[in-house]
Every structure is written in structure tokens, then in C-alpha cells.
Amino acid sequence: MTVFDLRQAVGLCWLAFVVVWLLASGRTKRTVERAGNQFGYRAMWIVAFGLMFVSRPGRTDLGVITRAILQANDLIVSIGLVVTIAGLALAVWARAALGGNWSGTVQFKEDHTLVERGPYAVVRHPIYTAILLMFLGTAIANGTLGALVAVPLAVVSFIVKARQEEELLQRHFPDAYAAYRTRTRMIVPLVF
């Protein structure tokens, strides 16, 4: 495969992610509570996502954000593809484990359960871990300044969102969630 083909495969991973998310979004429980102001993490997420995909290699109309930082060779782009595929696989697994409790924004669902199985046994927010892996893989494959800057923006966005979710879950599952937090990390296993 050429570098172009490998980058196309990274894009197909994102397309698969979107399709899975759209299909699964129809099978969620009714929302009973939403967290307050969610603008901050959403704005960062939109900027990160835009940077990731607007600053594609080969574009010259966007100036410095399309500058190549990583060398575009088969090995580098293949590593990016493998990381993206790993993120996609984790995202699908975590989404399946979460089931009807899932939501795109910070919400508490009717008959909400505290999920501690599957990838949730290791990290409290494995979907965020997965999407961050996809961001990292895509940034490696693209190799542009904009794509690499998008990764820390996405990290900050997910940390802000995860903290909002944790406040909501702590309120609804005070003892169980406190115990769960002592056993697991937020986003990165064994680290954070």
C-alpha cells in the first residue's frame, strides 16, 4: 500500500466510527438529567476535530498548520493506521459494554447503571481513550502541525468532559462510584 492508501484507510476508520455511533445512538435510554454548561469541552472538541481533518497533507492554502512535521513514509503512516484501528476497536468494545447508558453529551439516563465490565474495568472513560488513540493515530498518519496540535486539544476536551461526567455519577452512585474510582484510572490505564 502507498502512503496515500494508508491515509485513506485511516479515514475509513473514522467513517466506520461514525456509522457505528449513528446506528447505536438510536438504542439509548431516556435522559433524566443533563450536566450544566457543556460549551467548553464541545468548543475544544470542534476545534480539535477541525484541525485534524482540515490540515491534511498536501494542502497549501492553510499555511503553517499543513506543514509536515512527521516524515510521510510507509512505516510512519502504517503505525498511525495501526493506532487508529486499535482506537476504533476499543471504541466499539466500550460502546457495546456501555449499552443504553451512552450519550454524546454529559447526561444521566433512566435506569442508569454503573458499568464496570469490559474496558470499564480498566479505565473509567474508555471511549475517550479510544477516540484519543484514533486522534493520535490520525495525527501520526497525517504528520501535519495542525493534526499534531489537535491531539492535546482533544485530550483537554475529554478531561473536562470526563470530570463533568464523574461529578454526575458521583452524585447518583456515591459509594459505588467512589470505590470504582479507587480501582481505575480516568483515561490512561495505570497512569491517569
Write the layout of secondary structure elements.
Blueprint lengths: L2 H23 L5 E4 L4 H16 L19 H25 L8 E3 L16 H17 L2 H28 L1 H10 L9
Antiparallel strand pairs: 1-2
Number of structural domains: 1
CATH class: Mainly Alpha
What gyration radius follows from the Cα positions, in whole Å? Answer: 17 Å
How are the strands of the biggest sheet laid out side by side?
Answer: 1-2
Shape: elongated
Derived structural class: mainly alpha
Number of strands: 2
Task: Report on this structure.
This protein is mainly alpha-helical. The chain has one domain: Four Helix Bundle (Hemerythrin (Met), subunit A) (Up-down Bundle). Helix content is 62%, strand content 4%. The chain has a two-stranded antiparallel sheet with strand order 1-2. α2 runs antiparallel to α5. The model has no long low-confidence stretch (mean pLDDT 94).
Give a brief description.
The chain is mostly helical. It has helices at 3-25, 39-54, 74-98, 126-142, 145-172, 174-183; strands at 31-34, 107-109.
Descriptive key words:
192 residues, mainly alpha, Four Helix Bundle (Hemerythrin (Met), subunit A), two-stranded antiparallel ribbon, 6 helices, 62% helix
